What does this fold into?
Amino acid sequence: MKTAQEIYGLRAIMEAIQQDKAIDKIWLLKGQQGQLFKHLEQKIREKGISHSYVPVERLERFSNQNHQGAVARIAPISFVSLETLIESNADKKAIYLLLDGITDARNLGAIIRTAAAVGVSGVILPQTGSAPVNADTVKTSAGGIFSVPLVKVNHLKDAVFLFQAHQIRCVAVTEKANKTAYEEDLNESLALVVGSEDKGIQKSLLQMATTSVKLPMNDLMDSLNVSVACGVLLYEIQRQQYYS
It folds into this structure.
């Protein structure tokens, strides 16, 4: 099974960025100085790569190699361009998943596994604030991660704008919706926006959605695990599109 790979050192990471490698995250040493380090910081910001500043002890947990104050993790899969993905599905009924604030790798893997089972055309993740695409994600997806195209965008709002420009309806899943998913017509190309069970979809993104739906819920519970909720919604979409 393909797993994430870590690379060490300022020049090695710079080279990976220049070659457009699918970098999942970069850890940088707090307080690090120097021209090359600052150049790397600039490239990270330009590319919108997820990163954090950590003490030296955190970097040394990765390896005893000479890390020079920087460690990067290469994703175990490649990401595709959202524009290319939309164009490649222009002649069919496509379902896309936009995942907002899904920070647990196993939840992400479980969602991708279901997405693969129902033939989702692509899963869109934000560059920051998302679960890492690591070995746990790959394992939990049961191989589904290799059959569903993945996209990373700087901001999910950018993805929503692009979907709307292509007349693809963006449907947000929120308990604040007036209609359930069973009452909404979902028999068309859709971009389904899902948030985490604790925070939900960020307000600014929710306001951009074309429409909102919810899942009916017993009063004893106020939410479902996000991967379970995704599974219910995706199969309802499949039911409407192929079996009704």
The beta strands are 5-8, 23-29, 51-54, 70-74, 95-100, 122-126, 150-153, 169-173, 190-195, 211-213. Residues 82-242 form a domain with the Alpha/beta knot fold (CATH 3.40.1280.10). The two ends are 38 Å apart (CA to CA). Residues 80 and 151 are 5 Å apart (CA to CA).
